Amino acid sequence: MILRSKHLLIVGASSGLGLELARNLARRNCFLTLFSRKARTLKDDQELAPFAANLSLISGDVRKPDDIERLAKTLETAAQPLDGIIYATGVSRPDFVETPDTERAIDTIRINLEGPIRVFYRLLPLLLNRPGTFLAGFTSMAGDRGMPRAHTYSASKAGFDRYLESLRIDLFDRGIHVFTIVPGYVDTPMSLQNRFPMPGIWSPGKAAEHLVHAMEQERLVIRFPWYHSLGMRLLGLLPNRWYWWLMSRQRTMVKIDPHPGDEFSWPSES
After folding, report:
1. Would the N or C end of the chain have less CB density within 10 A of its end CB?
2. Is residue 246 in some structural domain?
C-alpha cells in the first residue's frame, strides 16, 4: 500500500501525532480532511501552509453525533472518494480511588472508545467494496494490562484495541486494512502532562515517519518504540500477583497534570 495522493481523514489532527501525520502525509501529496475541535487553527500551521489547496479543515467534537454526521455529509460529497481514516484523538487522565470522578471517567471513555466507534461505523460504508482502503486507530501499551491510576484510560484503550481487531477479522477478506497503532512515549502534548520519567521518548517527526513506513508495509499492528513494547511484553509474563504487587508500588509515581485545554481537572498532588 502506498500512502501517496490518497484522500485521508485524520481525526484529532490539531496536535500531537495527528498533526505530525498530517504534515507528513501532506508532503506525500495526499488530500487531507482534518477534523478536530481546533481544526481551524491549522490554517496557521507553517508546515501545512504550502499544501493548503489539498486540505479540508472541519471543526467538530467526536462526542457530538451531529458533528460526526456533518463530517460524514461532507465526505460523501467530496470530489475524491475517501481512502482511509486515522483516529488519532485521545485523552489521558488519572483516576483516584480516594476521590473518584465518574463524569471525568465517562468522558475519557467517550473520547477514547465511543468516539472511534461512532466515526468508524458512520464512515465505514464509504470504504466498503473498495479494496485498498483502511481504518487506523491509536491505542496504547497502557491497554495491554491494568495500570495504576489509569482505570478508564487503560480500559478505553484496551477496548479500542479489541474493537479494531474484531473489525480486522470481519474486513479481512474484503481488502480493507485495519491498523492498530500502539505507541510508547512520544514527545506530544499528552506526554507533556506526565510528571514522571519517560526514558527513550521519540520525537513526533520520527514517530510519524515510522508509522507511515509501517503502514505502507501493511504491518497491521504497529508497536513502537521496540524497547517500550518489549518492556510491556516482559511485564505481561509476570504471574498476576507479582504484576499487581509491582504496579501497586508504582501508584504514587503516576503524576499527570491536566492539559491546558481539558475541561476537567484533578488533584494537583497527582
Report:
1. N
2. yes
